[in-house]
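Database export, one record per block. Field names are fixed; values are copied verbatim from the stored entry.
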Amino acid sequence: MAKRDYYLVLGIPPIAPPEDIKKAYRALSKKYHPDANPNNKAEADKKMKELIEAYNVLNDQQKRKDYDAQPQFKVRRFAKSSVRTKTKSNTQEKQKSLANESPVLRFIKKLFEKENNKSDGPVTDPKQADVHFTLGLSMSETGSFMESACKEFKLALKFDPNHKEACYNMGLMYYKIGDFDNAVSAFEKCLEISGGEDPAARVMLAALKS
């Protein structure tokens, strides 16, 4: 991938039509042309080279297609909620533990659990997380629905804050509609969830923050 994302260089969303690429390049090339920046020609030259490189790729149908086909731009389709896996494991452990407890102790624990459930903490629901994740996937391939897809992935995260795939896809949707700041925040969150072990999120952040 380029040192800096080409769409970010031109200030257009990746779902932009070809005519928007031309318009953006013309406007920015006038703004940053060295002749228009006599007091800062070195920086203007650097900016113009970056603009020309981005334009030459995105204005060419095949080159743009190849650029968009990079692995980090692929929507993730692992729809299994992380909460579900944890919940299943925790349930099995609880069942083993309960088998060795007295009825009185189990009764006392249930009373405490009822009190704890009254708290205002975050609600996790793996089934709801998977429903919203799947809805997001169904909308993610159509430009006009990508904003709605982003909202569905966000809801999946609400019901499962550790749903890494939903977080990555949310960042990808923000990126594709041109909301680069929120894309950065989502990819940073994705890295946080994965403990820093997400190469694709790192690639996206490097290109968006350079």
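Remark 1: Residues 84-91 have pLDDT under 50 and may be disordered.
Remark 2: Residues 77-210 form a domain with the Serine Threonine Protein Phosphatase 5, Tetratricopeptide repeat fold (CATH 1.25.40.10).
End of record.
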